[in-house]
Amino acid sequence: MEKRTKWLIGVTIANLAATAFLALIVWAILEAFAGFAAYVVTWPLFVMFPISVAFSSSGLWLARKSKSAKARWLGYLLNGLPLVVPSYVLLIVGQTFIHMDRARYIVPEGYQGYVYILHGFPNGVPEEKGHWEVTYRIPGDGVLMSQAPQPEGLRKTRYFYQLGDGSLKRIPSVDFAAQDRGPEIVAFPNDPETNGYGEASETSSCNIEYEWFHLGAGSIRAGEPNWEELASWLHEHGVCAKGSK
Fold this sequence. Notes:
The structure is a single chain. The protein has helices at residues 3-34, 43-65, 69-80, 84-99, 227-236; strands at residues 101-108, 113-119, 128-129, 134-137, 143-145, 155-162, 168-171, 186-188, 197-203, 206-216. The protein is α/β, with parallel strands linked by helices.
């Protein structure tokens, strides 16, 4: 057996093992996203992806150089098919990036506390949707009634204070699991286990769909705000939640 054929066999075996491991990583990540896991480890994907592509490329090159027709075509087959997995990863990442919801929240300067966006109110604020991003302008009391439906799927969010001159100042955000936020005012995102959304009801015939986040500094105990706070706001403004059960 020529030396190049031995190299081809070794690279092909390594390629198949790397591809199997990459497929396992992709499956685990998709399962975590489907279950709205609070924390998803993705770095193994970015490590194994170039390794798998490198093995496939090397295997195809060695197959092309092989003098044995049988080894050459087996090399093409066994090193070409594994490229399906990296291609699938690229497709998933591309689809996720293109279809991911992007939202920015603009809050009056100096506001601290809970912010609620109540979705699906016909008499609410019309959806302000740009080419890539939806903008939610939060009023001074921290509660926005929006005509926009409840978002679904993965999202990328940004938070801003609107200063007195109309300019925007970025508010940093912290991980949901963080407890001590330090002296700087930051945005505390909503619970990723529920994808940041929820449904709350006061009675059997009144409910709302909402999302929330918190602005503040220092320490805070992670947890979702009580329905009573939303119910009080609705009563004060003489509105009822959309829909009925």
